[in-house]
Specification:
Distance between the termini of chain A: 99 Å
Radius of gyration of chain B: 22 Å
Keywords (chain A): Membrane, Transmembrane, Transmembrane helix
Structural class of chain A: mainly alpha
Order of helices and strands of chain B: HHEEHHHHHHHHHHHHHHHHHHH
Shape of chain B: globular
Organism (chain A): Lichenicoccus roseus
Protein name (chain A): NADH-quinone oxidoreductase subunit L
GO molecular function, one term (chain A): NADH dehydrogenase (ubiquinone) activity
Largest interface: A-B, 57 and 59 residues
Order of helices and strands of chain A: HHEEHHHHHHHHHHHHHHHHHHHHHHHH
Oligomer: heterodimer
Strand order of the largest sheet of chain B: 1-2
Strand content of chain A: under 5%
Number of strands of chain A: 2
Strand content of chain B: under 5%
GO cellular component, one term (chain A): endomembrane system
Chain lengths: ~625, ~500
């Protein structure tokens, strides 16, 4: 069973290669079977491995599979080794199961697209890369997956390459995340130079034994890794790419830009949490960035009119929650929220996709409205997703994971209380923006009629995800509400038993549960009748543009670089050499003039030269 | 006897190709392929795990014959793992050049292959010669046929480019010749023996000033070839104007002779001077990475863009060589090979765009994906390889280089890593401007032909293999890198950063 672990990423990889090579020969059905089937097999295999490895008390039996030695240079010997423990098991299940649902959905969503095979090749490649990322035992192998998912993200954002705007969005996503990756790879250099290895378990062990808490080295290393995580997970100040990334097809947004890839940063920090625990400063910054991101992008989500942009800002904001949890050391809460977020955000994106598809690729919510009657099923699942995102108390998965985060923050000192406040305000914003979206799209007057019906390949994934978005909360509940501990059990082997478990006080719990209700109530008051009252101020414009980060980066970085590029277009160094050449030619031309065949001139030059020579001789 | 055969076979084949080329156009092509395959057979025989008996550790083959004994000049050839790797690269890329010129070169077919073979012979000689005089001889040999390749089969400004190429390499070669003579005289002063034998000239005692001067003579010659900013400006012109096969040879192999020279000659002959020069060399490496990338971003001529990206990539090689520890050197070697393949492939692809659409101007291109999805996918693959995607060969080279550099100078490594961001910018801009966008009626090209397709497939396999399992290359290169002797063991304390791990 353990040897089969390698097949989980290998199957989608193989399918991707086959799809690239044989795209035209196997027909649409062949592409469908290969593309969806490979991920389905992967998911089945992942479930089978989970069943085999989970033992009593939900504890996971960890194991390693070494596939081959990547390279050996002196002591530096990174291997291609897969590591399965509670954390990678959870991630593997999320990627394959949700990945399968989204692939199934996409097989209907992209019906008739000329790039059908290309789409599934990229999607399968993405699943393989993402699985490599989470199963890697070595930071270098993790980096392969890390860049691999970035590449697939680039390819899929720019999937409809006819429109240069999509290409720009794709480039922006790749380049902005690569800025973060530069920090990450520098962190790898630092760690490899310090300990001579990049294997995560031995790195963590070396770090605890030779780096005291709070010293410069672990802090620097943690900050460098954090830089990579910020880029990938679209947190401040590298968050700007994610909203533009919505240019990709909606299943891509659901899989890559909501459920899996953008949470890679959270995974990275959770995976190296031992190192971060040695760097309290880095942790504090992680928490603060998370809090700031969740507030700023939550506010931006309030005013967007594009259905996918609302969800994109919401994703940034929710990942902010996960960073907040990491910042207070509530590792398992962060991963729990990662999982529930994958459920309800994938659901929301797919439901939004169903709406978009039936509205003739219309994404502007001001032109929607009253879709409740025409698409009752989609309305129900969208409402479930919204409720879960807004953390509607007791009945949704989002409630339990958000409570775990807020509880973790509440318990971790004065800075934690501050973060708790940010989290509560964010919860209010979340409820407000997502129910605004729900009410505007599905209530009120119907502007346009949707066409067609929603088929089973779209309906089934929506239904399954809707169920998960409700029952997912049962993975972990506070002591007050039953104290179910599946998630802590699975993750216990990685993070140790959580210290804040069961310590959740009643007052903050009740307070934090009421806040989403208040948000929903306000949303009902403002938008209950559809698009009733929109507040338009100058401030709205700023929110709409995502706090003008794009404009600032354009002025500070892009334009200076482009100026440099323009100014030096012809290579200033070369003009020196070309100048030498020109000088030689001019001199040649000048001297050639003197050689004109007229004896009088020659005599004149001779005389002038003699006079000059004499003058120098006499005068000096 | 096998080492001289490697050089003589292409020269003889050149003669045969020249004689028969007038009547039958395919004759020179077949002769060339035959000669290269024969060379490959010999090389395969030499690629064995156990070296011949009686050789110093690290060396695989040896040949010695007197040439001008009065002056201590001999025909001495030696091969170690580094030479062997570069020879394989040379043969593979020359073969690719012949394959992709099969239909494309129709004028003076015989002489074209004579030039190709003569360049190859010169390059093989450069990678084998261990007599400095002989080395210089080969160094010049490979220059002249290359000049003709550019000047006769090149594009619109070919003569200008060819002359520029010739002046740069010839001028810098002159400095090296002076340095070689000076080194021989210095050696005679201290030992009484006048010789050009590389192994005898190693460890020649000399004053630090002399050492620096001679080191610079060698360095500049190799720096022009590599190229190192600010000696790079011949490269964009020559690459842009050269025929596709010429660009492949130039980028794939000729530039590597510069790196090879630095590893084989500059640093081992003048370790102290090179050590003092390290900070400047590292700075030049970083400058090359960033400067090349900035220029690549701004180009609208596809070939120029790829050429400037070469300048950027070879900055990593310079960085790796002067960081001078096992990791960085291995990285530099892998980067040399990976760059040879990926940039060679890009030149082939760009060349086929030029052949069919008669333009390299990105402002007139775009939307190629519509008509030629397979071609575009291959193009995308090599652009991605060139931006250093992990899992492909270039990443292994760049990663190891920067990891080794970090031990010597973390700021240099970080700035080098910034170059990777810029690489993403220019590579993706190239892809976007050439391949993406709406269908362009002026830019419709068909798919690649059979020979191109086979060549591309082989290069893709090579880049992937290098990325996921570079161990064979590492093993082959490591003995020759190990016996080079430690330099940064002394460099490290100077730069206040003691390296903790293994030194060569």
């Amino acid at each position: 069973m353990q040897q089969l672990l390698a097949l989980v990423p290998a199957l989608p990889l193989l399918a991707a290669v086959l799809l690239m090579l044989a795209a035209t020969r196997i027909g649409t059905n062949g592409v469908r079977i290969l593309g969806v089937g490979s991920v389905a097999l992967s998911a089945l295999l992942a479930c089978r491995i989970a069943v085999a490895q989970i033992g009593a008390g939900w504890a996971v039996q960890p194991f390693d599979v070494t596939l081959w030695h990547w390279m050996r240079i002196g002591d530096f010997a990174p291997d291609v080794t897969l590591h399965l423990d509670g954390l990678s098991l959870v991630m593997m299940l999320v990627i394959t199961v949700i990945g399968f649902l989204i692939h199934l959905y996409a097989s209907a969503y992209l019906d008739g697209d000329p790039g059908y095979a290309r789409f599934f090749a990229c999607m399968n490649l993405f699943v393989a890369a993402m699985l490599t990322l989470v199963l890697a035992n070595d930071l270098l192998l993790l980096y392969v997956g890390w860049e691999g998912v970035g590449l697939c993200s680039y390819l899929l954002i720019g999937f409809w390459y006819d429109d240069p705007a999509n290409g720009r969005a794709a480039r922006k996503a790749f380049i902005v995340t690569r800025v973060g990756d530069t920090a990450l790879i520098s962190g790898l250099f630092l760690l490899a130079t310090s300990f001579g290895t990049l294997s995560i378990p031995s790195l963590m062990q070396h770090a605890t034994t030779s780096w005291p808490i709070g010293t410069a080295m672990p802090t620097l290393a943690a900050f460098l890794l954090l830089g990579g995580a910020l880029g990938k997970s679209a947190q401040l100040p590298l968050q700007t790419w994610l909203v533009d990334a919505m240019a990709g097809p909606t299943p891509v947004s659901a899989l890559i830009h909501a459920a899996t890839m953008v949470t890679a940063g959270v995974y990275l920090i959770a995976r190296t949490h031992v190192l971060f625990a040695l760097a309290p400063d880095a942790l504090l910054v992680t928490g603060l960035i998370g809090a700031a991101t969740l507030l700023l992008s939550g506010a931006s989500a309030l005013v967007q009119t594009d259905i996918k942009r609302v969800l994109a800002y919401s994703t940034i904001s929710q990942i902010g929650y996960m960073f907040l949890a990491l910042g207070v050391g509530a590792w398992d809460a962060a991963i729990f929220h990662l999982v529930t977020h994958a459920f309800f955000k994938a659901l929301l994106f797919l439901a939004a996709g169903a709406v978009i598809l039936r509205m003739h690729h219309e994404q502007d919510i001001t032109r929607m409205g009253g879709l409740r009657t025409a698409m009752p099923g989609v309305f129900v699942v969208f409402a479930i997703g919204s409720a879960s995102l807004a953390a509607l108390p007791l009945v949704t998965a989002g409630f339990y994971s958000k409570e775990a985060i807020l509880g973790g923050a509440w318990d971790s000192g004065p800075s934690g209380r501050l973060l708790w406040c940010a989290g509560v305000v964010g919860a209010f914003l979340t409820a407000l923006y997502i129910f605004r979206l729900l009410f505007i799209v599905f209530l009120g007057e119907q502007h346009r009629h949707p066409h067609g019906v929603t088929g089973w390949r779209i309906g089934v994934p929506l239904g399954v995800l809707a169920i998960l978005a409700v029952v997912g909360g049962g993975l972990q509940t506070p002591a007050l509400l039953g104290g179910i501990a599946i998630m802590p059990g699975i993750l216990g082997g990685v993070f140790g038993s959580a210290s804040h478990e069961g310590a959740l006080a009643l007052l903050p719990l009740v307070l934090a549960s009421l806040v989403p209700l208040a948000g929903i109530a306000l949303a009902w008051r403002w938008y209950g009748g559809g698009l009733a009252s929109r507040f338009e101020t100058q401030f709205t414009g700023l929110l709409l543009r995502g706090w003008d980060f794009d404009r600032a980066y354009d002025r500070m970085i892009v334009q200076p670089l482009m100026w440099l590029v323009r100014v030096n277009h012809h290579d200033i160094v070369d003009s020196f050499y070309e100048g030498l050449g020109k000088l030689a030619q001019r001199t040649h031309a000048g001297l050639s003039l003197s050689e004109n065949g007229r004896v009088r001139w020659y005599a004149g030059w001779l005389a002038a030269g003699s006079v000059a020579a004499l003058a120098i001789a006499v005068l000096s | 006897m096998m080492l001289p055969a490697l050089i003589v076979i292409p020269l003889l084949a050149a003669l045969v190709a020249c004689l028969g080329g007038r009547t039958r156009a395919n004759w020179p092509r077949r002769v060339t392929v035959g000669a290269l395959l024969l060379d490959a057979l010999i090389l395969a025989e030499l690629t064995r795990p156990v070296p011949a008996i009686g050789l110093a550790p690290g060396w695989l083959a040896h040949f010695d014959a007197p040439w001008i004994p009065q002056l201590g000049i001999s025909l001495r050839l030696d091969m170690d793992g580094l030479s062997l790797l570069l020879l394989w690269l040379t043969l593979a890329l020359t073969l690719a050049s012949v394959a992709i010129s099969w239909r494309e070169v129709t004028a003076h077919v015989g002489f074209f292959h004579v030039c190709l073979l003569a360049t190859t012979a010169g390059i093989i000689g450069v990678f084998l010669a261990t007599d400095l005089f002989l080395f210089f001889f080969f160094w010049e040999i490979m220059l002249v046929p290359m000049y003709f390749l550019v000047a006769i089969w090149g594009h619109e400004r070919r003569v200008h480019a060819a002359i520029k190429f010739f002046l740069f390499t010839q001028g810098s070669g002159l400095l090296m010749l002076l340095a070689i003579f000076a080194l021989a005289f210095v050696h005679r002063q201290s030992t009484g023996e006048f010789t050009f034998d590389y192994f005898k000239l190693l460890h020649t005692p000399m004053s630090s000033g002399t050492g620096m001067l001679l080191m610079l003579g060698f360095f500049i010659a190799f720096a022009v070839k590599l190229p190192v900013v600010p000696f790079h400006s011949w490269l964009p012109d020559t690459h842009t104007q050269a025929p596709t096969a010429g660009s492949v040879l130039l980028a794939g192999i000729l530039l590597k002779t510069g790196a090879y020279g630095l590893i084989r000659f500059t640093i081992p002959l003048f370790p102290d001077a090179a050590h003092r020069f390290t900070p400047i060399a590292l700075a030049l490496g970083v400058l090359g990475i960033l400067y090349g990338a900035v220029l690549a971003i701004g180009q609208t001529d596809m070939k120029r863009l790829v050429a400037y990206s070469s300048v950027s990539h070879l900055g990593f090689v310079l960085l790796g060589i002067f960081a001078w520890n096992t990791l960085a050197l291995q990285g530099a070697v892998i980067q040399m090979i990976a760059h040879g393949i990926s940039t060679g492939a890009l030149f082939i692809l760009v060349g086929s765009v030029q052949d069919r659409l008669h333009t390299r101007d990105l402002r007139h291109l775009g939307g190629l994906w519509h008509g030629a999805p397979r071609f575009s996918a291959v193009f995308l693959f090599f652009a991605i390889a060139s931006l250093g995607l992990p899992g492909l060969g270039n990443f292994v080279g760049e990663f190891l280089t920067l990891l080794g550099t970090w031990r010597v100078s973390p700021p240099a490594a970080v700035l080098g890593a910034v170059g990777l961001v810029m690489a993403a910018v220019y590579a993706l801009l190239l892809v976007a401007r050439a391949l993406l966008g709406p269908a362009n009626p002026q830019a419709v090209m068909g798919e690649l032909s059979g020979r191109h397709r086979v060549t591309m497939a082989a290069m893709i396999v090579a880049i992937v293999a290098l990325g996921v399992y570079p161990q064979p290359v590492i093993d082959m290169a490591s003995p020759s890198l190990l016996h080079l002797g430690p330099l940064s063991a002394r460099a490290a304390p100077l730069l206040h950063l003691a390296s903790r791990q293994d030194q060569p």
